[in-house]
Design brief:
This is AhpC/TSA family protein. The protein is of the alpha/beta class and 223 residues long. It has helices spanning 2-44, 62-66, 72-76, 96-106, 129-134, 144-151, 185-193, 210-216; strands spanning 86-92, 115-121, 138-142, 155-156, 158-162, 168-172, 206-207. The chain has two domains: 1-44; 47-216, Glutaredoxin (3-Layer(aba) Sandwich). Helix content is 42%, strand content 15%. A hairpin with a 5-residue loop joins strand 5 (158-162) and strand 6 (168-172).
């Protein structure tokens, strides 16, 4: 009888241990699922971009409008006697998708009939600075805070095309899908300058501003 009771206690203890182990496995699997979903969202969900067909001054926050400068790009052409078409490439130093776009840009000359500026979010100029300037690009190095306060932009990689009157004619991404190999900005620029209607491509990449990072990556899984 005593032996039977001991066996029952052993089976109960073993069952309790198994339940605990199973619970830990379920908890760990759930945790990994949450992490996986969060990473997928940060990589595959299109990020916001300023709307086209509005003046650039409309997207700069009020604090930026009250500052001495609207940013290198927005104020640069206003001081020119011959306003021209402008393309802005917003590149984030901590974003692999952005850096891939910048390498693509560094391997071609800036296009005719448009002034191209790379707005680089980082603590120092990009490694490709010399090559980019030799190929005809202007470079503006800004912080994440300055990107929003001076340009009204919160995500990257993003391209904006502005006409000589300061109206945004394109605001969007470079590829039709995440990490797509076909970077389409030369064709987009040519079509916009020629007056064709171009649908903005989704922005697949990284949040830059703190508010957008908190929204799309609340767990802080990305840089």
């Amino acid at each position: 009888m005593e032996s039977l009771q001991n066996n029952s206690r052993w089976r109960f203890a073993l069952t309790g241990k198994q339940v605990m182990q199973s619970s830990l496995v379920v908890f760990w699997a759930t945790f990994l699922s949450v992490i996986s979903v969060a990473l997928m969202l940060t990589h595959w969900v299109p990020l916001p971009a300023p709307s086209p067909n509005q003046p650039v001054s409309a997207i700069v926050p009020e604090a930026g409008l009250q500052s001495a400068s609207l940013g290198f790009g927005w104020s640069h052409d206003a001081e020119s006697d011959t306003p021209s078409w402008r393309a802005y490439h917003f590149i984030y130093s901590q974003c692999p998708c952005s850096l891939r776009v910048m390498r693509h840009l560094a391997n071609r000359l800036s296009l005719d009939d448009i002034a191209e500026t790379i707005v680089y979010v980082g603590s120092e100029p990009p490694r490709e600075e010399t090559l980019l300037t030799e190929n005809g690009y202007s470079i503006d190095v800004v912080s994440a805070q300055e990107l929003f306060s001076q340009y009204g932009v919160q995500s990257s990689p993003l391209m904006m095309i502005v006409d000589p009157q300061g109206m945004i004619r394109y605001s969007g991404g470079y590829t039709s899908r995440k990490q797509g190999y076909a970077i389409q900005e030369p064709a987009i620029i040519e079509q916009v300058i020629s007056g064709q209607a171009v649908d903005s491509l989704p922005v697949y990449g990284c949040a830059v501003s703190k508010s957008l990072k908190d929204l799309v990556d609340p767990l802080g899984l990305k840089p």
